[in-house]
Write a structure and sequence with these properties.
Distance between the termini: 50 Å
Strand content: under 5%
Radius of gyration: 20 Å
Number of helices: 7
Helix content: over 70%
Strand order of the largest sheet: 1-2
Order of helices and strands: HHHEEHHHH
Shape: elongated
Amino acid sequence: MKVPVIINPTDFESLFRYNFRPLCLYALHYMGDVEASEDIVQECFLKLWEKLEQGTEVENRRAYLYMTVRNRCLDTLRKKGLQTESLNPNDTYGIIDDDDAAERSQTEAKLWTAIDSLPEKCREVFILSKRDGLKYEEIAEELGLSVNTVRNQISKALKILKEGARKILMFFFA
């Protein structure tokens, strides 16, 4: 009989908080659909919780989650009738390997976390420019701002993001 593993909700919440976004981005490399990716990641966290409640010890929970997400994505794609060659992760550059997808998802998650920390108007302008590809004039018109304000907000966003990246580099290499 397995002895139930005591699950510390705070530890599990922390695991969820730090890994949900990277795992969603990782799943997105396979699925190409944000909602399907989020559903798969939520199911995988639930599966881990249930395993822990049943007394199964999972040594490296993060690695377990990546493996489970990958397998769930592949199962979902197979059920849709996709051929084996269509089951590789990809991004805007084409097919990438699984390790690349995991690494990129973590980098992308850090970037989105930094973008989310920008002041609201600054973030909105930055996303419209960089993600949506709108020109300064289009952003200004859509948000009722001057082109100069749009230019200043994007400059501010880039400065904040660069400073954040500089602090991270200093932490690791100083």
